[in-house]
Amino acid sequence: MKLFDVYPLFDIEIVKGRGVHTYDAQGTEYLDLYGGHAVISVGHSHPHYVQALKAQAENLVFYSNSVVNGLQQKLADKLGKASGYDDYQLFLVNSGAEANENALKLASFHTGKKRVLSFKKAFHGRTSLAVEATDNPKIVAPVNESGNITFIPFNDIDAVHAEIVKGDVCAVIIEGIQGVGGVQIPDDVFLKQLRAECDNTGTVLILDEIQSGYGRSGKFFAHQYAGIRPDIITMAKGIGNGFPLSGLLISPAFKPVYGMLGTTFGGNHLACAAGIAVLEIFEQENLVENSREVGEYLMARLREIPQIKEVRGRGLMIGLEFDEPVKELRKRLLFEQHVFTGASGTNVLRLLPPLVLSMTDADEFVTRLKKAL
Ligand SMILES: Cc1ncc(COP(=O)(O)O)c(C=O)c1O
Predict the structure, then answer these.
(1) Which of 18, 157, 214, 338 has the fewest Cβ atoms surrounding its Cβ within 10 A?
(2) φ and ψ at 95, to 5 degrees?
(3) Long-range CB contacts (< 8 A, 24+ apart) of 108-113?
(4) In whole angstroms, what is the distance from residue 205 CA to residue 173 CA?
(5) Residue 218: what pLDDT?
């Protein structure tokens, strides 16, 4: 049977990972400045993580959400403490798009309204309403066109105000830092104004922290730089370090009703074991602080490179804007310098390394990047 061929692949098969390094079948080492698209948070095959998954798999891999699963509460307690959102409620699902679907659904249940404001260049996933809220018509199928999404220019509070006062908006959804859109940071002032607009109109503010959350920005969530508290926060990627797991943090204003949300696999035992191990490693290795410190150091070093037009980002979510397309540079980095990187659009190289990246690893990347340039 053939695979459904939707991914343009690099002809490399990665068979092993350790920390910030991955290895192909021939044993060639690659420095991972991409983290498998921001997924690897505590590093590849961290021994504590591997041990936790093994131990859980030997005990119980899965049982359904019809019985008590103490691991979900353990994960919720740890996450509340790590994120500063102890008073919120946790709902666990399996992927980023699914987290956003549930967040939008919850906002609509809560307000009884339908329209959603999203932003230009936003990416929120590939399913149903999440893909309609994604500013890329190429991946929106006719069946996804509900007509409930309005796109607003990024950082434009007047445009938000003009739409939100119409009274039919259930939610505003915004990324903590736009990833696919080119590592664009919303202004702190704009986020505060957005919070106020939502408060004034009873609109649900959803922060999509799927890429920018879980320590990647140097704070637990990127929106915490602005000092706001959203009504719902969506998380995925780094939460499971590669084990499919995602979730929503839901403010106490939302009252749960039996059956209003649900999932077969969400919050299963093995997923929770992965999520708990990730947070234990975050605590033991101070990974949020490491992300901030190493990110600042790396960005300062990158700003010294004259070929880079602009370096932007927070923590270890970094965009390097060039005057020309980065496609060839990215290939040279991979095939000649053995470094994995990402891209946003045509001219931005995107760095999303594991949060265990050290200053020495950052130096090594700068050396290899300079050779590739
Ligand atoms: C900001 C953001 N939201 C949502 C998603 C969708 O996540 P998933 O691919 O797990 O459905 C992504 C994935 O890249 C993302 O970056």
Answers:
(1) 18
(2) -150, 165
(3) 108/170, 108/171, 109/260, 110/170, 110/204, 110/253, 110/254, 111/170, 111/171, 111/202, 111/203, 111/204, 112/170, 113/168, 113/169, 113/170
(4) 6
(5) 98
- Where are the domains positioned within the chain? 14-46+286-372, 48-285
Q: What are the structure tokens assigned to 262, written together?
A: 């649900």
Pocket lining for ligand 1, CB < 6 angstroms:
95-97, 100, 123-125, 175, 179-180, 208, 210-211, 236
Q: What is the pTM of this model?
A: 0.98
Place of tokens 């009703």: 257
Tell how strand 21-24 and strand 115-119 pair up: unpaired
Q: What is the CATH number of domain 14-46+286-372?
A: 3.90.1150.10
Same topology, domains 14-46+286-372 and 48-285? Answer is no
What does the pLDDT look like over 151-208, one tens digit per residue? 999 999 999 999 999 999 999 999 999 999 999 999 999 999 999 999 999 999 999 9
- Residue appearing with tokens 């009252």: 255
Query: What is the CA(222)–ligand 1 centre distance, in A?
Result: 15
Structural domain 48-285, CATH architecture: 3-Layer(aba) Sandwich (3.40)
Between strands 149-152 and 204-208, the pairing is unpaired
Q: Which of 124, 136, 217 to mutate to test the pocket of ligand 1 (most atoms within 8 A of CB)?
A: 124
Nearest to residue 294, comparing CAs of 310, 308, 277, 313? 313
Is residue 264 classed exposed, middle or buried when 0-12, 13-18 and 19+ CB atoms within 10 A define those classes?
exposed
- The CA–CA distances, whole Å, from 192 to 30, 198, 221, 340 equal 41, 10, 15, 35
Mean pLDDT of the chain: 98
Beta bridge partners of 171: 116, 204
End-to-end CA distance of the chain: 41
